[in-house]
Amino acid sequence: MIGQLERYFEFAELKTTWRTECLAGVTTFMTMAYIIFVNPSILHEAGMPVAAVTAATCLAAALGSLLMGIFARYPIALAPGMGLNAYFTYSVVKGMGVDWRVALGAVFLSGVAFVLLTAVGVRQMIVNAIPHELYSAVAAGVGLFIAFIGLKNAGIIVANPATMVGLGNLHQPATLLALFGLLLTSALLAARVHAAILTGVLATWALAAVTGSIHWQPLPYSVGDILATAGQLNIRGALSLGFFEIVFVFLFVDLFDNVGTLLAVGKKAGLFTNAGDVPRLNRILYCDAVATMAGATAGTSTVVSYIESSAGVAAGGRSGVTAIVTGLLFLVALFVAPLAGVIPSSATAPALILVGSMMMTTVTEIAWTEPDVAIPAFLTMVTIPLTFSIANGLAFGFCAWTLMRVARGRFREVGWMVYLLTALFMARFWYLGGA
């Protein structure tokens, strides 16, 4: 039996062992476990119950990681994605006034669309059509967006009627706690501590408890409480005219987040060199799509591949066993669901800021000395946080990319898929008036 499993996971070819794979799985879990606390803190602002979202986060991460390990056999863990959870809460629910149940329906539909696009081969056409610099800019713009939300939640940035935003009151206890968490977590990251973000969240939470900044009375562990979002998605509402944009953004960002993470982790592990040489690529995308649909059914936003998986790869993980171990640990983490509600935003805000900073590494992939590349990329990056919308940033950058090439007489370099997507974005601006 053991020998059959080792052959299935290609232990000999990958030159790995059970001990190495298990340690790598634990390492990956420790580096991404912060999502157990951070994701509920974001989705709670959409009106969703914290304990239920925490449980849904653990379940979606467990299922996605187990599928990736067993079916696709890659050391890549999955969980609800940073950036897409912010888009879910701040752009869709709070910005558009959409009920969170309908937004979950849109997430589910994006997963269905992902399955269909993968099955008919359209996914590869889209990947080849989108300029590489643009989705690098989207990733960086989402990083700025997340960091902006973290700074706001920490009280470091506040609304100002004269200048739109300004510096908050740094003497506030909650802001001081957030600054402590930011400094501590930054130091741990600089020291290459694998569980730096999780440690920072827990340490700040502990300090808040010691200083009397939080008040908590133990509550019974209620199955009803942690299942409050399960099966609550409203697919019929999401099918309404006007939800195409929401589904498209969930789908688009998920698609390129997966491709980027896959390449980064795969190259680090030495499993392949580029997107054209990825064995079992469709299996990877199917795992992500199924996990997204399951996550929406449980009650959380889009599930994506996590770049933190590279920590497990650095620890020696090479096979799907790494992802399986990570998935099993997320199942164990279900028992923290009742505790998540007492974690203050001052403890999770530093994680948002620092995750945002990590996402900025993609700017190095943009040719800033080339105006027809730099301008669309810049517009994409700045309009995401300044309009509080990933969709707006994506649309501005895409339209600028296409129009600049047409203006320079380089229209033959633009594929028909890019023209089609640009037309859709321009129609969106015309219909919504840029709102």
Structure report:
With 435 residues, this protein is mainly alpha-helical. The protein folds into 2 domains: 2-152 and 221-344, no CATH class; 367-435, no CATH class. Helices cover 67% and strands 3% of the residues. It contains 21 helices and 4 strands. A two-stranded antiparallel ribbon has the order 1-4. Strands 2-3 form a two-stranded antiparallel sheet. Strand 2 and strand 3 form a beta hairpin. Helix 10 packs antiparallel against helix 11 (196-210) and helix 19 (371-386) packs antiparallel against helix 20. The longest helix is centred in the middle third of the chain and has 26 residues, at 244-269. It is globular. The model has no long low-confidence stretch (mean pLDDT 82).
Which terms would index this structure?
435 residues, mainly alpha, 2 domains, two-stranded antiparallel ribbon, 21 helices, 3% strand
Q: Give the distance, in angstroms, between the N- and C-terminal Cα atoms.
A: 59 Å
Mean pLDDT: 82
Query: What is the molecular shape?
Result: globular
Total number of helices: 21
Into which percentage range does the β-strand content fall?
under 5%
Helix content: 55-70%
* Pattern of helices and strands: HHHHHEHHHHEEHHHHHHEHHHHHH
* Main sheet summary: 2 strands, antiparallel
The count of DSSP E runs of length 2 or more, i.e. the number of strands, is: 4
What's the gyration radius in Å? 21 Å
Strand order in the largest sheet? 1-4
Class by helix and strand content? mainly alpha
| Unreliable runs | none
What's the domain count? 2
Offer a quick outline of the entry.
By secondary structure, this protein is mostly helical.
